[in-house]
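[job 4417] fold queue: 2 targets
>>> target A
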Amino acid sequence: MAALLLDAFQDWYCPACGAEERTRPYPPNAARMHTCTALHCLTAPMVLAGADCKVTAVERMDYLGREIQATGDDGKPYMAIRTDYADGRNDVAVHAPLARARFTED
């Protein structure tokens, strides 16, 4: 009796820059991220091959002040990467600002 060994793979791609990758299956609701050259070198999600979607960088519109925020290679602060699918659903990868703390000895 012969044993059949299956080796599963998932194909990923980025609709913005065209990057492609093949990996072993990820757990449910996990995302494959990459540094996207088309989205100002921000960390952006890849989607499963064959998905009809558009990936865009969402610029931060409010006052930045002294907060530390992810900036693209163009120097602008970006608050999220948005993936809009053709069927109407969307995903958002948020780039939250970083908190700052200062410790002083009294």
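>>> target B
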Amino acid sequence: MRVILEVTFPNQEFNAAVRDGSADKKLKRILAELKPEAIYFTARDGQRSAIIALDLPDPSSLPAVAEPWFLSFNAKVEVRPAMSLEDLASAGLDKLGKAYA
């Protein structure tokens, strides 16, 4: 299942990782393991953030996706299901629309 992972890094922890030179290494290690489809870094509510699209093979893999962020940066992690246009097209919206009209 494709998901959007939103990671928000607390300033204090991330600043410490930047200062001690470990931020880049930690980020690269986590992302190498996740193999995301796409990742964008941005700011959210005054904190560094990442928006990551990835395919979650099984719901039981969620801890392996979230824990590295928690343990490495004390980050906040939010996960949302996501669909491509093709996924949405095969969802049967027309049938549902008629059933619940």
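[job 4417] complete. Note on B: The chain has a mean pLDDT of 94.
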